[in-house]
User: What shape does this take?
Amino acid sequence: MATARRRGNRGLWPVLIGVGVVLALVGYLAVRFVHSAVSDVCTARGADGTTVTLDPDQASDAATIAAVAHARGLPEQAVIIALATAIQESKLRNLAHGDRDSLGLFQQRPSQGWGSAAQIRDPVYAAGRFFDALVKVPDYTGLPVTVAAQNVQHSGYPTAYARHEVMAATLANVLTGQDGPALSCTLRAAGEGGTNAVPADGGSGTGGVEADRGRGAAGVVHEGGHDAGGVAAEVRREFGAVPAAVATAGDSVTYPVTETATGWSLALWLVCHAGTLHSASVTSVTFDHRGWSSAASGRGWTHIQPASAESPAAAVGVG
Assistant: This one.
C-alpha cells in the first residue's frame, strides 16, 4: 500500500510541474499585459468617432509628416496619402532595415536614388522626398489613396495602402489642426502619478494646467521648457512657415499665429514630440484656452481660465 501511494505521488509530480509552468507563464503574460497597459500612449480621436492609438515614436513621426506637408503648403489629401503609405511600409516606425536596402518610414532605397542611408533615416528628409515625388503625380489629390501612393512607391503590393486610408484620414485631420485638441499623449516616463486615462472627448477636462502661461493674446503660440531653443529649432526645421518666435522668457518661446488650425497643428506636434526630442524636452503646451502638461498628461487637454475677457488664453506653451 505504501508503495502504491509513493507511485501515486510520483505520478502527480509531472502534473504539478506542468501546472507550475502554466502558472508561471500566466504570471509572465500578466506582467507584460500590465506593463503594456501603463506604457506611454498617444490617442487621436476623429470627429466621426474613429480612434487611433499610437506610441510616442509613431505619433511623433506622424506629426512630422503633417508638419513637412504644412511647410510645403500641401493639402490635407497629401498628408493622408503619405500617412497611409508610412503605415503600410513601416507601421510609422523609422526602420533601420527592410527589403533589400529599404529604410525608414517609407522604406525608401538608397540604391534607387532616394538619398543616402543617413538621409532616409531622417523622418523630415524622408517625408520631403516622398512629397517631392507625390506632387509630380498628375491629379494626385483626385486619385484613390492607394493609386496615388503606388505611383510613388512602385510596390509589389499596389492595393495594400487602401486598408490604411481610414486611419490615415483620421490622423491627417487631427494633426492638421482641424479638430482642435483631438489628440493627447500620456507619458508615464515624465513622472506622472496615478492612472488617469485620456478624456473620451479628446481632452476637455476642467482643471487648470500652467494657467499663468496660458494668458496671452489670441493667436499666439507659446512654448517653454528645458532648452526651449532646441525645441524652437525643431519647430523651424519641420514647420517652416510657422511664424518665428517673437518672445523668450526663461525656458519659454512664443510664436504668433494667425490661423486656428495652424495653432492646433503646432500644439499637437509639440505634444507628440514631448517624449521623443533628444536635445530638449516639452513639459507643457497651451493654446486656445486649453493646456497639456507632461507631469499630468493623463488628464489630457484641460481648460484654462483666461486672465480676463479681453485676454483670452490662446497660447501654445511648451515647457
In short: Residues 290 and 303 are 5 Å apart (CA to CA).
